[in-house]
Amino acid sequence: MYRLQLLTSIFLTLLTLTASADISVSAIFNPPRVAMGDKSQYVVEIKETDNTRQPQIERVTGLPIPQSGGLELSNGRTSTSQQTSIINGAAEYSVTQKLIIDAKPPRIGTFTIPSYVFEYKGENYRVPAATLETVERPADAGPTTDELIFLKTNTPEHLYVGQTTPIELKLYISEEVRLTGLNSFDRSADGFTISDLPDSKETVEIVKGRRYRVLNWPLSITPIQTGQQDLNFQFTVSASVPSQSNRRDPFGGRGFGSSLFDDLFGQNERFTVYTEPTQIDVRALPSEDQPHSFSGAIGDFSMQVSTDRDQTQTGEPIMLSVEISGKGNFDRISGPTIPATDDWRNYDPESQFLPHSPDNTLRGTKRFDYVMIPNQSGNIEIPEIRFAYFDAEAQRYTELSSPTIPIEVSPSDIPTIAPATSHLPSPATTTTAQPLQKELSMEEALLTLDYRPKHSYRLDTTAATESIYWIINAAIAIALSCAALLLRHRRRLRDDNSYAAHYKAKQELRAVSKSAQQAADADHFYANAQNAVRLATSCRSQQNYRTANIDELTQALKQANVDDTIIELTQELFKTADAQRFAGTRSTSSLSSAKNQLERILKAL
């Protein structure tokens, strides 16, 4: 009996080994020979073959390439295919995974990526060496891909910390190219805050004799760190480039997998276009001769100060308005400080910005409205107001000042309130009537700007009227409390950059999460899901992770002591999303389960 079990075990083991999948690995350049200025593709192919069932793919996300031989490698992506063949009743199943990387040679010559070993399904496999030959470009050769579609921006050489400046991002598409889609936008700008990407405007330009359709995006950048700061942008686009195979092969032969139809209509491909590597020298603002009234304004400004009237009464507020006009970083301009004086009480101002045009927020007028309440009667003055800014072009500080504003304040005509005789302890007892005075909060002062009491009436109260009186006062108190909370929220949004960023991230998170849950297809779901996780991480950590990759998010979640299970779910979600987005691979899991997975992650964050 024991021998029979042993023989059965050996037989099953041999059968499993015989039926196990055969895995082969190859590497080529496609095409293997290009003209100077053209790109090739470094392709690593992993093929699994099995005669019993369809092999399961293990997604490869990176290759340990030891050296590129000087080649510029970029835009890595994957593609998969599967095949079933039946010959004489015997079935054979195969699946192929291709890892594709764009390779651009820097000069004429031969370039070799040597053999190396990588791990796949727990086993080590060797990738064979591959060689690319680059020859001199023929005089009659067609334009390169980089000449047909490219990205440019006009960045300055240097800026000051906090100096907001406009730039323009331009995508040039030759009229020979048919653009079919803008798939993604990314930026490398840790040392800057950058405005959101607006809708593009289309123009036409002639560059080196070639006509281009140009998509323009106006942006504004503000440096937040000193030193040499990187600023790079990239778009992933889908485009159809005619005669792509002939342009790649300097000798006129078609590339691998091309056909006559490709020559006529072109192949629809995905490209990643980059701006040229850019560094901006960010300088610190000079501390010498910096006025006390300087609070961060950089640009060129003028100031106008006015009041809504030049007469008032003691205790009655007036409105003081300060308007800052010109061009510069209005988002960093706060209201000028009014010098403290015994003659006035004042409160933090309400602000409003009016741009000169919707497309240009660097030019306009920012208005600050202060509530001013006189403490005494007489001819008193609103003190001098100062505002300073730094002129980056002239490299100097400029301080603006307003003259004092005389205000005629008369004694208050609010009638006094005498105590009711029915409550006097004795007819002989007399009291001195006192004016009704109350220290007004900012919200109460705003509500009383246009209020002028004319008469005072004495009311006989009953139980019913007293109840109504208290209900009305309670409603007014609730309304004032709500107004105070709203004003406090607005002030924090204006003055506290971290609070404003956190609030904006929470608002964006709600919208993006809703879009992800309502998405009807996987492409829209995973794009919104990744943004939702980034925004949730930003809210959790109080830092900006809007453009973070999964490694940066993982580190941030670990620092925030997020459960390892949630981190693993996040990594799985991003892995599936990247495969869906860049490799065109469809997820095997249902969209509803992916939405449940996202909801679980967001609840944990």
Automatic annotation (TrEMBL):
Membrane-crossing segments per the record: 468-487
Coiled coil region boundaries: none
Signal peptide: 1-21
Keyword Signal among UniProt keywords: yes
Domain of life: Bacteria
InterPro entries: BatD (IPR025738)
Keywords: Membrane, Signal, Transmembrane, Transmembrane helix
PANTHER family per record: BATD, PROTEIN BATD-RELATED
UniProt protein name: BatD family protein
Protein's organism: Thalassobacterium sedimentorum
